[in-house]
Design brief:
With about 240 residues, the chain is mainly alpha-helical. It has two domains: about 90 residues, no CATH class; about 130 residues. It is built from twelve helices and no strands. The longest helix has 22 residues. The chain is elongated.
């Protein structure tokens, strides 16, 4: 993990450290709060594994626990989202939205913003075989953060991995789905944010970036770029008609 990302993660743990581990969990009758709490308290917070938090991560706030409980476990959930695709960033973003995170203290809001934005930047800088940036990007949209500056920086980056990540987004069946029910987590974005993201992916700047990287990237990645360039042209033609 890059040093800056690790530092931001440590800051997140510190910011939410005042929220103590719950002694009991409020839960729906359909849940087993004792079992979930045993999983969550079986180890120190920073040592909890995906298996320890997986059920809680999906059920938190809807059928298990309070906002203060979630604030206690939030740093570890983000930590595991950075390490594993099992804990999905958009799920955390939806829980934050449910928890009314924009009413939290400024320090808590800033910690959330900083870690999500930088995690997204780092994801775009990784190869698509290692990480997919879409999960972090859609999370920023769910949290109603400004995507404009981040998208401009990604499009202008000389890191070939950024172009590969953009290519993967262009080939996604969810971002451009006409039926909202087929958009997966993208359906949870405000319409304006979704449209801005689509316009960014179909822009001439994006096309130029994909073409430039295609000329210099390794042969095994060329197919992804060429397929994405063709898909972009298809979407553009559809919009013109």
């Amino acid at each position: 993990m890059p040093i800056k990302l690790r530092r931001l993660l440590d800051d997140t743990y510190e910011t939410f450290a005042r929220y103590h581990r719950p002694l009991v969990l409020e839960a729906s009758p359909l849940r087993d709060p004792k079992k979930i709490l045993e999983q969550l308290t079986s180890k120190p917070l920073r040592l909890l594994d995906v298996e320890d938090v997986q059920e809680y991560a999906s059920a938190a706030l809807t059928t298990v626990g309070t906002v203060d409980d979630y604030k206690h476990f939030l740093p570890r959930l983000i930590d595991l989202a950075l390490q594993s695709g099992v804990i999905e960033p958009p799920i955390i973003a939806l829980k934050l939205q449910m928890a009314g995170w924009r009413a939290w203290t400024k320090k808590e809001q800033q910690a959330v913003e900083d870690i999500f934005v930088y995690a997204c930047v780092e994801a775009f800088n990784q190869h698509t075989d290692e990480c997919l940036a879409g999960g972090w990007l859609v999370s920023l949209g769910i949290l109603n953060m400004d995507l404009g500056q981040l998208q401009a920086e990604v499009a202008a980056s000389d890191n070939d991995h950024c172009a590969l990540q953009i290519a993967y987004l262009l080939l996604s069946d969810t971002i451009f789905a006409s039926d909202p029910s087929e958009r997966a987590f993208w359906k949870d974005l405000p319409d304006e944010t979704l449209q801005e993201t689509q316009s960014w992916l179909l822009s001439e700047e994006t096309r130029t970036s994909l073409l430039n990287v295609r000329l210099r990237t390794r042969p095994e990645d060329v197919w992804l770029l060429e397929k994405a360039i063709a898909k972009r042209e298809e979407f553009v033609q559809q919009r013109l008609h």
